[in-house]
Amino acid sequence: MLTVSRRGLLASAAITTAFGLNKKLALFRPAHAETSLEPTNGVYKYKVGSVGVTAVYDGIWRKPHDPTFIKNASVEETKAALAKAGLTTEFMPIPLTVIVLKIGNKYVMVDAGSGVGQWQANATHLPANMNAAGIDRSQISTIVVSHFHPDHIWGLMEKGTNAAVFPNAELIVNSTEYKWWTEPGRVEKLAEGRRPAGKRIADVFPTWKNWKLVEDNAELAPGVRLLAAPGHTPGHSAFLVTSDKDQLMVSNDTMYVPALLAPHPEWQGAYDQDGAAAVATRRKLIDRVIADKMMICGAHFPFPGAGVFAKDGDAYSFTPVAQS
Ligand SMILES: [Zn+2]
Fold this sequence. Notes:
- The protein has 324 residues and is of the alpha+beta class.
- Helices cover 21% and strands 29% of the residues.
- Strand 1 (2-5) and strand 2 (8-11) form a beta hairpin.
- Bound molecules: zinc ion.
């Protein structure tokens, strides 16, 4: 087992199942770290109590290095953090994984992925991997949406026509997020680069009747609660899954890419609407996950997108689950 920390990769004993993962965490192999970002098998199943979790790989953004990406760190510093985590430094690797929860006989999907051909050239795998996982999209009765960034919601809309991909599913989102993006005059107030996405959201989402707007701490499905996690966007939310004695924090973009933000939780991304709020939310959420010995997953964690955190001085270390 290797742990990503401020000091780099540390060998450690196999982590036990204290956080409720019903199998031993497999060895993370840094020599194949880049390969592990592009899994050959893009489906991974695990259990949280009686809830079935299926991690489904969508793809990866091989983002060119950009000095504006982290507001308070240089490209050299971000490259050093990637290297310490055993990842490539050729580009900023931003993988994307969607999870589907099976609660009883009901399927609840967390976010909808990036939509084939609507986000990045290498994020095209979600439909095939859903099929491989044995999940037909018509079976999904509920989609809980963490926030309105393209990689999380373009999968709700057909390319070109914007037709609803899930017209019969209930779409649940924090009311703060929905209202912020759809309020009159929002598009003009967005940074220029975000305006096309903002316009698409404002044009399409209010025409759909299957939205359910909820507040902080709402129960979205049996054992699934929304936790407001603002900063990345004003209504960005995490989801806490509880079943029997097990808990899984579905953190979405709170910890973004842990190779960067575990050792540097104070780094603020250009993608964060309110960087200071994002940092405060990140620390609060990760501290809770550690205190409660919880498993955590994140949309941009290395596939299969789950792991555990520990305190490391003023920062954190992250131990990803590797696909066995
Ligand atoms: Zn994202």
